[in-house]
């Protein structure tokens, strides 16, 4: 499998692949972590708007929604192709990267600026992070990604590897649902300017939009999964996998 040559795809139990090297796994991990970090740095702080012709108005949305759902697509691909244990390792890598990014942002923002440097206020606006939102985001990411991976792995067994679309969409509905249910109440419930009704409205809207992205990207998911399975030569099933999130062994 390390050669990455295309060949027949064989169904295997995830436990039989312990310690196996896969040609594309490291690239998938790097892509997942990069999207997690960049969507938080570049997308989370901007509110954009889109014109809705049917309603004849602009509709605001968080810019991060354009790219953050891609992490769930990659999470689906990782679990589908490489199994839950390797997806779990990638989720912990992403969580660790987010933790370090939050710490680094705090340190850099708090460093006293040189007198001739006049951009501190702008820097604080972009990179200054409210501790409550940082904690909410990390907790939601951790729980949502693990739910997504768990549901997909279990559904793959139930469906006997058929109907990939049902697994990717079903796991995203569950994972993004947990993500939204944790993030928005933790981050904004009782905050100034946020009524309970507004929190629930934004929660449901963002959840629907993220799941809709997953549906639209289903052809891409099929193409990537098919390519990786052919190149790696395996179709992994988590029949006897230990689904605890508190492990890193593969």
Automatic annotation (TrEMBL):
<keyword id="KW-0997">Cell inner membrane</keyword>
<keyword id="KW-0813">Transport</keyword>
<feature type="transmembrane region" description="Helical">
    <location>
        <begin position="58"/>
        <end position="78"/>
    </location>
</feature>
<keyword id="KW-0472">Membrane</keyword>
<feature type="transmembrane region" description="Helical">
    <location>
        <begin position="90"/>
        <end position="109"/>
    </location>
</feature>
<feature type="transmembrane region" description="Helical">
    <location>
        <begin position="27"/>
        <end position="52"/>
    </location>
</feature>
<comment type="similarity">
    <text>Belongs to the vitamin uptake transporter (VUT/ECF) (TC 2.A.88) family. Q precursor transporter subfamily.</text>
</comment>
<feature type="transmembrane region" description="Helical">
    <location>
        <begin position="133"/>
        <end position="152"/>
    </location>
</feature>
<keyword id="KW-1003">Cell membrane</keyword>
<dbReference type="Pfam" id="PF02592">
    <property type="entry name" value="Vut_1"/>
</dbReference>
<keyword id="KW-1133">Transmembrane helix</keyword>
<comment type="function">
    <text>Involved in the import of queuosine (Q) precursors, required for Q precursor salvage.</text>
</comment>
<protein>
    <recommendedName>
        <fullName>Probable queuosine precursor transporter</fullName>
    </recommendedName>
</protein>
<keyword id="KW-0812">Transmembrane</keyword>
<dbReference type="InterPro" id="IPR003744">
    <property type="entry name" value="YhhQ"/>
</dbReference>
